[in-house]
């Protein structure tokens, strides 16, 4: 063992006890294995666009959707729909048009009913409705983190 210049009051035994050599060594590769798996995870997602005329458009994704694509789906700037966090039993995120009410977009009855259903007993906290087209996105972890 090579000698080191240790600060006053610090002994080699203190350092050895602190390092605790009986614990298994964990390499940086091991620590990053989970993160590497996450990075290599194939992006898989889907979207339901609930339109004000009652129709639903379905999209499948193998890459994260672009901001422009999401804005086109709702017809303007994005606003996250609060409390809309699950859809069809999966974690999700929903967006509507941020200026929908200012622009007097039509009521989206289907999306509003789904939103109230997802809120459960919390729906009484919000006396609001959704207007304009609403996009609901869900997918695997890689897809959701890429949003």
> Strand fraction band?
15-25%
Quaternary structure annotation = single chain
Characterize the overall form. Answer: elongated
SSE run: HHEEHEEEHEH
Break the fold down into its secondary structure elements and pairings:
Elements: H1 12-19, H2 28-40, E1 45-50, E2 56-61, H3 67-74, E3 78-80, E4 86-87, E5 90-97, H4 109-119, E6 134-139, H5 141-146
Antiparallel strand pairs: 1-2, 1-6, 3-5, 4-5, 5-6
Salient structural properties:
alpha+beta, 147 residues, 6-stranded antiparallel beta sheet
A few lines on this structure:
The protein has five helices and six strands, in the order H-H-E-E-H-E-E-E-H-E-H. It has 147 residues and is α+β, with helices and mostly antiparallel strands.
Characterization of this structure:
With 147 residues, this protein is of the alpha+beta class. It has a domain at 45-146. Helices cover 31% and strands 21% of the residues. Strands 1, 2, 3, 4, 5 and 6 form a 6-stranded antiparallel β-sheet that branches. The protein is elongated.
